[in-house]
Design brief:
It is a single chain. The chain has one helix at residues 17-23; strands spanning 7-12, 27-48, 54-56, 67-83. It is mainly beta. It has one domain. The protein has a four-stranded antiparallel beta sheet. Strand 2 (27-48) and strand 3 form a beta hairpin.
Length: 85
C-alpha cells in the first residue's frame, strides 16, 4: 500500500531479493518462515520417443522438449520486515 509504514514480504529460501534490497539501502530483517503453495513449483519436461510416446527429459539431452507440465507444491518461504534506514 502506498505510504505504508510497515512492509513485509516472503521470499523463497536462498532468494537474492533480500540482498538486492539491502544493496539499495533497505533494511530487510528476517522475521520467520512459513509455507506457501506455489502453483508452478514443479516443472516436468517430456521428450517424444522414437515410438511417439512422451518420456521424461533427461539432463543434458539435446532433444527438443515436446511438453512441459507444471504442478503445485508446498514450498518453505522466509518472511521479512522491510524498512528504510
Amino acid at each position: 500500500m502506498p505510504g505504508a509504514h510497515e512492509v513485509t514480504f516472503d521470499a523463497l529460501v536462498g532468494s537474492a531479493l533480500p540482498a538486492r534490497l539491502a544493496a539499495l539501502g533497505y533494511i530487510a530483517t528476517l522475521t520467520g518462515a512459513s509455507e506457501r503453495i506455489l502453483a508452478y513449483a514443479v516443472a516436468q519436461r517430456f521428450e517424444t520417443s522414437p515410438s511417439g510416446t512422451l518420456v521424461p527429459a533427461t539432463e543434458g539431452s539435446t532433444k527438443p522438449v515436446s511438453e512441459q507440465i507444471t504442478h503445485a507444491e508446498i514450498a518453505v518461504v522466509e518472511q521479512y520486515d522491510l524498512r528504510m534506514p
